[in-house]
Amino acid sequence: MRLVDLVIRGGHLSEQAIVAAVMSGERPAHLDQCGLCAERAVELSRWLDDVRVAGVTVADAAFPAERLAAQQAQILRRLEQLDEPARVIAFPSHARLRRETSGHRVAAGWLGVAAAAGLVLGVVGGQWTARISGHATAVQAVQAPAPAQTPTQPAAVEPAPDRAVPIDASLLDMDLDSLTVPATAIMDNITPRATQVALVSSRSGRK
Amino acid sequence: MSGASTDPPVSAREADARVAVDVKALQAAGRLDAARERFAELVTRHQRRAARIAFHYLRDAADADEAVQDAFVKAYMHLGTFREELPFEVWFTRILINGCLDRLKARRRRERWIAPPLVDSAGNERDAGEYLPARGPSPEDQVLADERRAQLNAALAKLPERQRLVFVLSHFEGRSSREVSAMTGLNESTVRVHLFRAIRRLRALLSSGAASKAPLRGRTNRAAR
């Protein structure tokens, strides 16, 4: 019995002493002599038992047997992953390349021959196509009829088609001489007419 | 309370030590499948106890589940550092508690910066135990027992972490002060003080029913006198 218990608590054990006695199981001699303290100790012991039962029940309810089994399986799975070294999986393109090269192989020389043959065929075909289309355009230009002459309405003339012959006949027949500006009349008079030059050159070309 | 001071049977300790030594030897020999199979015995033996400790410490079943898994994986990885003269249980519980502490710190950081703490309408922290599925029918006794468990859970949640840990290890798991000291790294005297404070506060919380309404220290002091 400590002096402080004797003075302050009237000879009874402190709560800390009761807790220590109950938790450690070491029964102080005072408990055999004091009914009040013994009752306090028993009451505390019952309360602690209730608390333990309730606490364990709550924890066990959170972890039923199924959950513990799943947990154990997960632990063992993780341990297995730890023990087994990681495997490196080959990149798919490597596998494809290996498959292609392992079969019949085309010689590099033949690839060059094929490329050259393709180039020659392309050039010859392009030339042939250009000649055929050029001949057809010329024939069409010769056979095209001249449109009706409309000297008073130059704006109604259709635009010159973009063909091999640069100037259309309808354009050549236009009365462009009437389009004069007074201020530039002198310059206009000394300048040769483009239509006349083109007409002369085209007629000489056809002959 | 005789269970608080009784040590686990020596045979259990010896069995643990034997299994641990076997696993170490199998790992060294490269027989990893056999090592895992042997280690599974330790998992089976300590799993439920570890789940209880982690659940009461972390107050969350999913977190506790992961903490227990991590602890067993760490124990397997670092079994080479285990000394046979110490109980495996103590060594493993230390690993588990350290993992739980890390999780608590991470959770605090997360709650501080990302998500607000879970509180109910009354401002109390929500407890995972309150949302556990009920088992079977609910007669009056069952309702009362559930209510009592919920109260206890809420009161446990209000304890400071160290007090809660010491209380769970000492009282729920029946460890002695020396063992709790070895598991937690605290002094034996500190363990005893934490245990006493935890019990005093729990009694006050559960007897009043409303922990935050009245100052506990003064009331318990008066009660002690």
- Main structural class of chain B: mainly alpha
Strand tally of chain A: 0
CATH architecture of the largest domain in chain B: Orthogonal Bundle
Approximately how much helix is present in the residues of chain A? 55-70%
CA-based shape of chain B: elongated
Which quaternary structure do these chains form? Answer: heterodimer
Q: Spans of chain B with pLDDT under 50 lasting ≥5 residues?
A: 1-6, 131-135, 210-225
Name some characteristics of this structure:
heterodimer; A: 207 residues; mainly alpha; 3 domains; B: 225 residues; Rna Polymerase Sigma Factor, Chain: A; Arc Repressor Mutant, subunit A; 2 domains; 9 helices; disordered N terminus; disordered C terminus
Could you characterize the architecture of this molecule?
- The complex is a heterodimer of chains A (207) and B (225).
- Chain A is mostly helical.
- Helices cover 67% and strands 0% of the residues of chain A.
- Chain A has ten helices and no strands.
- Chain A has helices at 3-8, 15-24, 29-33, 35-62, 65-83, 92-102, 108-143, 169-172, 185-190, 194-206.
- The radius of gyration of chain A is 57 Å and the shape is elongated.
- The mean pLDDT of chain A is 76.
- Chain B has two domains: 9-118, RNA polymerase sigma factor, region 2, helix turn helix motif (Rna Polymerase Sigma Factor, Chain: A, Orthogonal Bundle), CATH 1.10.1740; 139-225, Winged helix-like DNA-binding domain superfamily/Winged helix DNA-binding domain (Arc Repressor Mutant, subunit A, Orthogonal Bundle).
- Chain B has nine helices and no strands.
- Chain B has helices at residues 10-29, 32-58, 61-77, 88-113, 140-158, 161-172, 177-184, 188-208, 216-224.
- In chain B, 38% of the residues are buried.
- At the A-B interface, helix 2, helix 4 and helix 5 of A face helix 2, helix 3, helix 5, helix 6 and helix 8 of B.
